[in-house]
Design a protein that fits this description.
Strand content: 5-15%
CATH topology: Rossmann fold
Oligomer: single chain
Number of helices: 6
Distance between the termini: 50 Å
Order of helices and strands: HEHEHHEHEEH
Length: 191
Amino acid sequence: MQYRGLIDRIKRDHISVIERFLEQEEEKIINAVVIAKDVILKGGKILIFGNGGSAADAQHLAGELVNRFKMERRPLPAIALTTDTSVLTAISNDYDFSQVFVKQIQALGTEGDLVMAISTSGNSPNVVEALKVAKEMNLYTIGLGGGNGGKMVPFCDTLILVPSNETPRIQEGHLVFLHLFSELLEIALFS
């Protein structure tokens, strides 16, 4: 097997996707930071969710915001809705997995809060349902996806899309966004 050739192709694909992502979505990324800053300054919080690798990204972002990214500063109010196994399994068992984020948003969300939905396909039923409910509750909705955004498109105030249909490249773009968002938000709030 030609490992070096595969690595070279993956490297080229990664660099190309990330460059196009940052060029195409720069204004939306800035808009997401401005919205998050405004939400936090008004006493609101950020609720973050997704499935699988996107759940890990939700937890990663919440950790960067609650703890710190690069600056020594006060903690920011962010909650990953992917971490409470008792809540997740109770809702899944008693209702349906499509409700795991809906019920948490209904319990924890307040008008003016921000929800950030992470989905490589944009088609996960629990993510789409949560975005619908968040819109009904007058929460700001930011979607982080890939390709054409899938079914979450009409429920996002801001939709940031990695220009790829390959899950690994989309997830790599999401990681770039998480770090960029965290750094810009710290600068916006604390510089």
